[in-house]
Amino acid sequence: MNDISPEYFQFQVRTEEESYNLDAVVMRVGSDWLVSIQGGEKPHIGAVAAAQSRPSLKGAEAVSETASVLCFPGHKEDVITKEVSEKLASLLEAKVVVTAGIHWDDISPEGIQRVIENSRILISKIADKIRS
């Protein structure tokens, strides 16, 4: 992980798609990870998820994850925070906390799907950056 102290490592990533791009700030906290995802017109915290890797129930050689989610009333980011935290916890075999605040006025169902797809792109970008 470069020449940065293994106890503290921080970076930013951004999707670069045609629309509904997302930004993430990622920070290593000891052996754990904290991710803040933002997108749209009004930065905020709409949901928080905490996930931890664990041995899979399918067998000792597989890794799975467990997550808890808190979503503030009227917000829908819980789907994204849960998926991102679980995938990263499993990939990194670590505890991961993800916050998200994503808002575009009058977003269409297709736009919502694009945001979800972009959140999956963020997972890959984050994992690639950590592994580099």
Describe this structure in words.
The chain has 2 helices and 6 strands, in the order βββββαβα. By secondary structure, it is an alpha+beta fold. Strands 1-2-3-6-4-5 form a 6-stranded mixed beta sheet. A hairpin with a 2-residue loop joins β2 and β3 (32-40). α1 (78-92) packs parallel to α2 (109-131). The radius of gyration is 15 Å and the shape is globular.
List keywords for this structure.
single chain, 132 residues, alpha+beta, Ribosomal Protein S5, domain 2, 6-stranded mixed beta sheet, 2 helices, globular
Quick overview of this protein structure:
The chain is α+β, with helices and mostly antiparallel strands and 132 residues long. The chain contains two helices and six strands, in the order E-E-E-E-E-H-E-H.
Shape: globular
Please estimate the helix content.
Answer: 25-40%
Count of distinct strands: 6
Question: How many DSSP helices?
Answer: 2
Structural class: alpha+beta
Give the C-level CATH assignment.
Answer: Alpha Beta
Layout of secondary structure:
Blueprint: E1 8-14, E2 23-29, E3 32-40, E4 47-56, E5 59-71, H1 78-92, E6 96-103, H2 109-131
Parallel strand pairs: 3-6
Antiparallel strand pairs: 1-2, 2-3, 4-5, 4-6
Helix pairs in contact: 1-2
